[in-house]
Structures are given as structure tokens and as C-alpha cells.
Amino acid sequence: MRDTRRSAALPNDTSDGSSIDEAERIVLTAMRSWLRCANLSASHREPPSWRNVLANAGLHTDGLVHFDMLMRFLRCDANCPRDERCHCRNRLAIDEAMLLQALADLQSTRSEAALRALAHWLPRCPDSGVLKIARWFSIALLDAGLAIRSVTQPKPYIH
């Protein structure tokens, strides 16, 4: 059985030299843990550690629900497959960077910019409700003291 705790960790610096802060690390770890749990077969079900990551960071039940709903929207209603990479990665995937950017935009009340970032996956974003859920999650992050800073445009990953 593989130790999945290590795969959820993220280094302080990405290989392109850009640094991520604690708030971004928490969201990324939760995202990767959520996706790992969603991809496990029923016979290998593990406790959803993304809940622990976010709860330990100070998010309340509503924030956990909003995160789960957001991830379900992005997983089920996506226009294109999610940017998946092997576990040897030490950089942000394009999709991860776009979601962090959307959350940063929503925390800074820039809804139009967040819509552009989310439209990468969801062309029906304005009428799908995902923007509202992403906004609720971004507010829950702020309530927990987790401000996401605006990230630079991600560079394509080549393995």
C-alpha cells in the first residue's frame, strides 16, 4: 500500500522559482487530497484527508461543504480533462494555478477576472452556479485568515 501522505505535500518553492505561501499550500494540498480520494476505488477507500487539511487550517463546516461542491463542479462539469501529472511534480499544474488565480480574484472582488480563469474548464460558468460556490469558498478562506495572492500565468508543464 502506497503512503499517500507524502504525495499531498507541496514544497515551498516551485521549480520555476516562484514561491507559494501557506494559504496556497493548504488549498493545493486539499485539492490534491480531494482528487486522490475521488479516484480511489471503493475497495481502497481512505478517509478524506482534505477535510482534515482545511479544518486544521481553520475552515468551518460551511467552508468544507463549499470546497467539496466546488471540486465536484470542476470534476463533473469540466469542458476539458483536468491537468493530471505524475507524482514527481514539484510545480503547479496549469489547472491548479488557474483555480488559485480565480480564488485570489474572488477574494479581491474581481469577479470578471475569476470568470475568465474558471472559463478554462467551464464555458457555462456564469449560469452553472460554480462562481457563487467559488466565491463562498474564497470567503471561507478569508474568514480562516487564508488570503490567496494573485499568481503569475502558469507555464506549461512538460515531463
Major beta sheet, specifics? Answer: none
Q: Return residue spans where pLDDT drops below 50 for at least 5 consecutive residues.
A: 1-17, 154-159
Helix percent band:
40-55%
Number of domains: 1
Q: Distance between termini?
A: 25 Å
| Cα-atom radius of gyration | 15 Å
What general form does the structure show? globular
Q: Helix/strand/pairing class, anyone?
A: mainly alpha
Helix and strand succession? HHHHHHHH
Average of pLDDT: 75
Q: Say how many strands there are.
A: 0
Question: Would you write up a description of this structure?
Answer:
The chain is mostly helical and 159 residues long. It has one domain. The protein contains eight helices and no strands. The longest helix has 18 residues, at 22-39. The protein is globular, with a radius of gyration of 15 Å.
In short:
With 159 residues, the protein is mostly helical.
List the helices and strands and how they pair.
Blueprint: H1 5-8, H2 22-39, H3 49-56, H4 61-76, H5 94-107, H6 111-118, H7 125-128, H8 130-143
Helix pairs in contact: 2-3, 4-8, 5-6, 5-8
Structural descriptors:
159 residues, mainly alpha, 8 helices, 54% helix, globular, disordered N terminus, disordered C terminus
